Fold each of these.
Amino acid sequence: MIIVMKPGASQLAINHVVERIESMNLKSHVIVGTERTVIAAIGDERGKVKEELETADGVDRVLPILAPYKMASRELRERTIVRARDFECGNSKIGVIAGPCSVEGEEQILAIARGVKAAGATALRGGAWKPRTSPYSFQGLKQEGLKMLAAARDATGLAVVTEVMAPEHVPVVAEYADVLQIGARNMQNYLLLQACGETRKPVLLKRGPAATMEEFLLAAEYILDRGNQQVMLCERGIRTFEEHTRFTLPLATVPFLHEKTHLPIVVDPSHGTGKAALVSTMSRAAVAAGADGLILEVHPSPENAWSDGYQTITIEAFGKLMAECRRVAEAIDRTI
Ligand code: PEP
Ligand code: MN
């Protein structure tokens, strides 16, 4: 349930409500708004007396949270803005994350970082641990790759977004990364979600290719429930009967999720289409649909990329894409 405090309710009154919630064996999350504070009481509410809270000092009203995803629900708050260095996602400026599928070497990542930054990206992507369909494919440079990403950040100021594949890797990835990416294949790896929830690093959670919206939001809930509020949801395409694209990119996800959650929504047209020729158009469409962020695979020579080259665009094409997206963003009163 949500306990809405009266405007100007005292800290003493807020503390009292928190104590009452905890004495009911529920978890409390205090959300301080510009006008008033709301307190979420999360847990098994059966047999809990709502009236006790309603009559407490400073309380305006007590409302149930109807959605199963309590912390992710828009019933709790209007919006969340995720920030990492100059990267912002969830306000009027659209955050752009760009870079190679995999980190391949120090010079490669630095050249890409410089190129995408010049075109307007505010975050650099690059996998150091790679979840590959085949165990014989390149698996990533691991910790060496993380160091290269950190060096590219030092040189450009871009925020680093990189995937963490296992709970035991969270400390080392969090040491180098600004944003922890949870890959599509790991969307329901609950121990990984919880481990990322224990950090205070922003998380980019990718939708599983077969996950429903409710499963996606409940996966985010695992992170939020551990106290990490900086979560972005990423639509990266789902598995359908279609074969003309690698995955099917459902852009209705964006306005739908905006109705259901306060978390910002990022779109990945690279994995969503699996075809470089479609990436630019689908990026513009994602911006038009209201996406708060884009994540794009960019490489100076896609045909020589160590992974996902067929869906990767050149630095030049990325510059053109940014210019086009800028015009779409302007049309809906946003910037990029
Ligand atoms: C990636 O970003 O390179 C990646 C592996 O993405 P996904 O988890 O969406 O397949
Ligand atoms: Mn990839």
Amino acid sequence: MIQLKNSAQLKDMRDAGRITAQALLVAEEAIREGVSTYEVDAKIRNFIEKCGAKPSFLGLYGFPGSACISINDQVIHGIPSKKVILREGDIVKVDVGAFFHGFHGDSARTFPVGNISDEAKRLIEATKHCFECGFEQVKEGNRVGDIGNAVESCAKSYGYSVVRKYIGHGVGRDVHEAPDVPNFGTAGRGPRLCRGMAIAIEPMINVGTGDVKEMPDGWTVLTLDGKLSAHYENTVALTDEGPIILTDPN
Ligand code: MG
Ligand code: MG
């Protein structure tokens, strides 16, 4: 069932979203050549706890890190590790959530390490653009399928693929709530968008095939063809004043 939020609850979600977004700025600052993904994760955790919040993903379904940190052909759910050292040219997906005053925020970005290839730059830009196309569809009367359709159309316009196995979702007292928000769909189909809905729109965009596989660690998801993948996510809400991004650092 879709849990609609009233304006006081959306205000609390905005606070959780702000901490989440600021944690991504901490990650961006920490990411550079020679640093381990464990170190990046530790800085994220320290920041979130300093804010009086909890990392949403720590222990969620048994996940061992505070953030999911995934490199290059890793799509999502990478486990922070002392053995994974960032190298110039890598692209690093950081997916983070903060739980504060009863609500979660959920947001992800793809960061470059030093100089990256033109292909990687184009992919990162395209993935952000896919999010924006999806977010433009968040208005009363539209349906979830309008979001997915816009995201996938944008990805295709770059010659890229969307990951279909993992999708966006409602956000609130739980990190993952109804409805499902796929990065594909038929315009005019799916649950109707209405005031009080809070959802994570999170395009995962691949240069090659959209097909993925899981690593033996049981968590990390990789592109099937080993080509690059990028991720861009915000928790957004449809309020009385219109659509807003909850995971805004300001
Ligand atoms: Mg996320
Ligand atoms: Mg999410």
